[in-house]
Amino acid sequence: MGGRRRGGTGLLALVLGALLLLVTACGGGDAAGSGKNGGGKKEGGAAAENSASQAVVTVSPKDGAESVATSGALKVTAAQGALTTVTVTDSKGNAVEGKMGAGGASWEPVRHLSAGTKYKVHAVAKDAEGRESAKDTTFTTLVPKNTFIGHYTPEDGQTVGVGMPVSINFTRGITDPQAVENAIKVTAVPAVQIEGHWFGNDRLDFRPEKYWAAGTKVTVELNLDGVEGRPGVYGKQKKKISFTIGRSQVSTVDASEKTMKVVRDGKTIRTIPITAGAPSTTTYNGEMVISEKYKVTRMNGATVGFGGEYDIKDVPHAMRLSTSGTFVHGNYWASSGTFGSANVSHGCVGLRDVRGAGNGGTPAAWFYNNSIIGDVVVVKNSKDKKIKPDNGLNGWNMPWSEWIK
Length: 405
What we know:
This protein is mainly β. It is built from five helices and 28 strands. A five-stranded mixed β-sheet has the order 22-21-20-28-23, with no helix packed on it. Strands 1-3-6-5 form a four-stranded antiparallel β-sheet, with no helix packed on it. A four-stranded mixed β-sheet has the order 2-8-7-4, with no helix packed on it.
């Protein structure tokens, strides 16, 4: 009897010991109450990693907005975090260039947006824990009721002389010239500083400080689409053109000596007897650029303030030097002895020629055939004032210091 009791007590102790071991094992080694539970920390870290980012991305204008202004409306900001990625593209996938604010707090486009265009915005920001928050929106810019474009010269692909500026005449008067000028980019290879200058509120010319170097390649980018040139009037033009500067040719007319010296690439290739403006109708002094060429044209004094003094319907080999009517042209009505000896014109530069422009051997024909749009004709020693820089493509008559103001 006693032996059986001892056996029962041993079995009970064995069972209790096993239970105690099981409880200790489940304690994860924290039986001493230290609180250093590795398993608990892992579970807490996982929870933190999976929690939402605190960064808040805001896009203005709101998602789905329409008739959005092309300037000043688009802005992306981040609160409780910093922007890491902002991409804005139009419906064709063209990216909008932008600039990030300090610390990634904001993003804005560097230029205006195009009108009547749908844009897609994708922005990502990170909070202090490195967790990302993203936002995707779309909006559409306004369709303007009133628009303007710029008529430009020279033409795309043209080869022109070293004096040729980029000249743009706008169809509406511009009241925000800086916005319009910022939307036009003129570059050259080889590179040279090129600056714009406004003549009034509807004409903008670009040129370097000195004549272009022969062989220069010039590119003009007109990004006027969406520019608010005046209140409620937007540009609708987006175009890229390029032209080439040909050989250098600068011809100097000495009104006193009554000669024209033609210099090409630094060498005099011909000196031509001329007749300049008569004492009562002198020729402007200054640097003038050939802007148009006509093998035969009509010249009517009534159109340039001379009443009915002349109306010649077949002036040969005429090349325009000013808007006000200064030309270098062939003259068949004066005697051959006039050229080089007397100034008898109404302000133009005349060269000996024949009626009909059919003789390619005359001085006027030679000069016409050896000149291109953009060549420079300088007049000196005339008893007249210097031509105004906006009278034709003649901005070279303005000092560079004034041009860049």
